[in-house]
Design brief:
Blueprint lengths: L2 H15 L3 E9 L2 E9 L2 E9 L7 H4 L3 H15 L8 E8 L8 E4 L6
Parallel strand pairs: 3-4
Antiparallel strand pairs: 1-2, 2-3, 4-5
Length: 114
């Protein structure tokens, strides 16, 4: 299994252990991809999983720049258009330095505002 796919599985497990329900993994459309879509109560959570082995160039969090945020927002809007009603939503980021999560997972709720 590729490290990115393993990191996404690790992140999904991590969030499910904290009470979130996985709705879909790897949602793709022409605008881009969302790694994980989950529910936390009534809130729909769009989660971006980032794996970075080092903090060079700003680490995992710095890799979610304005361009990446715009792609995530447009992809989420595409997903939301398929729903009968739009629930409260947020964008989270899960930052890993190892794909298996053994060196820890940093969970940034509301990683950026829309």
């Amino acid at each position: 299994m590729k490290p990115g796919a393993q990191a996404e599985q690790t992140a999904a497990r991590y969030l499910q252990q904290r009470g979130l329900q996985l709705v879909q993994a790897n949602y793709r459309c022409r605008m881009g991809e969302i790694d994980l879509i989950l529910r936390e109560g009534e809130t729909l959570v769009f989660a971006e999983v980032r794996l970075r082995g080092s903090s060079d160039f700003g680490g995992a969090a710095a890799s979610i720049d304005a361009r990446k945020q715009a792609k995530l927002i447009h992809t989420a809007q595409h997903y939301l258009a398929s729903l009968p009603r739009i629930p409260p939503c947020r964008f989270d980021a899960l930052l890993l330095t190892a794909a298996d999560g053994k060196s820890g997972i940093e969970w940034l709720k509301n990683a950026f505002e829309v």
